[in-house]
Design a protein that fits this description.
The chain is mostly helical. 72% of the residues lie in helices and 1% in strands. Helix 5 runs parallel beside helix 11 and helix 7 packs antiparallel against helix 9.
């Protein structure tokens, strides 16, 4: 790596990392702006427009060939831009939903929008990384911002408890993650994904490498909420403000899984020795994650906790694809992340509009919302689309997403794992459809009196997001170009490394 050559590629580097730099710059501007004009009304507009600009920029780059910038530290174009679009779309929709929600609870702080921008820049950096150091920087940038956002309602003891649990367990998992990176570097002599295979083939410390991989995966499995590293998920999701919970459940999970896909596809997955071992390990983690995530979701009375355990189960579905370890499986995982983001942003957004307990939905039960579908039909209908899609009903997006992750597992000889995933999806219909039963079929008199007397205003901006997510889920499966596009990302020879 010659630093002197940086001047020769500076324009290419700035163009490749423009979204990360842009979001970070606007985040700093929002912070300074908030110092001089505390909680100014313009701040969410500035933050939202900056996300929209980055989103449009990455959309134009999706069709570009994949390459690397900044001395191959991050990837750009192709899959990297596609996952950036998923992250930025999740962040933009979450921010739009957050503005009226935060005003309603009296917490419309300007720093929230700056923290969301910093978290999003870290997520994009994580999801486009090509080097272990870049992964760590992106992961910590994202995590630190999310720790603060979780406890942003400082007067609520539940939010503070959730933030503390998230911070302590997150710091603990980071230790595993860093130690794993150190061992991988010690065994291969490189931090770059694409050079791991060469370093491994000449290494005399191959056992050390696999120990490092195990520790590395522990850190990642914590971030995606896989069993048995899921303990933080229900408490954090329940305690955080609901639209911000949706942001954490979608954008951060998409970034973490995208980075894991890159590590497996360009690094660990290219090794001939030990491949069956890591695939079997991921398959077992996927199995317990799918089973326990769905079983624990069954017993939840609080919708946010139910969606938290649901997100654990959906992490298991993505892990089923990663365990297959084929190009089609990686493409299916990336495709599923986009659909998963639309489903959960919509679900958390709908629930956010129905809160009445004054505790960010932490205390209210599902049964308290009996008959709310007739009172708020827009929320009831769109929630139906989200619940059916999460279950995997055709022809909604959730069906095509699960098909994209289960089919490659069958082709890879993991038929037993795919069968478990299908049965778990059928099983999940009980708690997803229970939401619709309470909304539409349970007598309104069985609900809480606060619900019967409440107005539950639905801002126009929130309505647009809910309808947009529902419409996209209704039509995304009939757009074959998206699925074909993800398959093209993993064609051999589609990745070009720049100096």
């Amino acid at each position: 790596m010659e630093i002197a050559s940086a001047f020769d590629t500076i324009l290419t580097d700035l163009a490749g990392g423009a979204s990360i730099l842009w979001l970070s710059l606007v985040g700093v501007i929002v912070i300074v702006w908030d110092i001089f004009r505390n909680n100014a009304r313009e701040l969410p507009w500035v933050a939202g427009v900056s996300l929209g600009i980055a989103l449009v920029y990455e959309l134009f780059k999706v069709a570009d060939p994949a390459s690397t910038v900044f001395f191959s530290l991050i990837q750009t174009g192709g899959e990297a831009s596609f996952i950036s679009v998923t992250i930025l779309l999740s962040a933009l929709f979450s921010m739009i939903l957050s503005v009226p929600y935060l005003k309603g609870i009296g917490r419309s702080y300007g720093e929230i929008y700056a923290l969301m921008l910093f978290a999003t820049s870290g997520m994009v950096l994580l999801g486009t990384a090509n080097n272990m150091v870049t992964v760590f920087v992106g992961l910590e940038t994202m995590s630190i911002a999310l720790y603060i956002l979780t406890g942003i309602v400082r007067s609520d003891e539940g939010a503070l408890e959730s933030a503390l649990k998230y911070f302590l367990l997150g710091a603990f998992s980071t230790g595993f993650f860093l130690y794993g990176i150190a061992l991988i570097y010690g065994a291969t002599g490189t931090m770059y994904f694409t050079e791991m295979a060469i370093g491994y083939s000449v290494s005399e410390l191959q056992l050390l490498f696999w120990v490092g991989v195990a520790l590395f995966l522990v850190g990642f499995l914590f971030k995606v909420g896989a069993v048995p590293f899921h303990m933080w998920t229900p408490d954090v999701y329940q305690g955080a403000p609901t639209p911000l919970t949706g942001f954490m459940a979608t954008a951060s999970k998409a970034a973490a899984f995208a980075a894991l896909v890159l590590v497996l596809h360009h690094g660990i997955g290219t090794l001939d020795i030990g491949g069956a071992d890591w695939q079997l390990a991921l398959a077992l983690v996927a199995l317990v994650t799918v089973v326990f995530g769905n079983l624990l979701a069954l017993t939840q009375d609080n919708v946010k906790r139910m969606l938290a355990y649901s997100s654990i189960a959906h992490a298991g579905y993505v892990l089923i694809a990663l365990a297959a370890g084929t190009s089609e499986a990686y493409a299916g995982a990336v495709y599923y992340l986009l659909i998963y983001a639309l489903m959960n942003i919509g679900a958390f957004g709908a629930i956010a509009l129905l809160e009445w307990d004054g505790k960010e939905g932490r205390l209210q039960t599902l049964d308290s919302l009996a008959g709310i579908g007739f009172k708020k039909p827009l929320i009831g209908v769109t929630m139906g689309v989200f619940m059916f899609s999460l279950t995997g009903f055709p022809p909604l997006g959730g069906f095509f997403g699960k098909l994209a992750v289960f089919a490659p597992a069958v082709d890879a000889g993991l038929t037993w794992l795919a069968i478990v995933g299908v049965l778990a999806s059928v099983f999940s219909g009980y708690y997803y459809l229970r939401v619709l039963y309470v909304f539409w079929m349970k007598p309104a008199g069985d609900g809480d009196p606060a619900v019967q007397s409440g107005t539950f205003p639905v801002p126009r901006s929130s309505s647009i997001i809910l309808v947009t997510c529902a419409v996209l889920l209704l039509g995304i499966g009939f757009i074959p170009g998206i699925r074909d596009l993800t398959l093209s990302f993993f064609v051999p020879g589609s990745f070009v490394t720049l100096p």
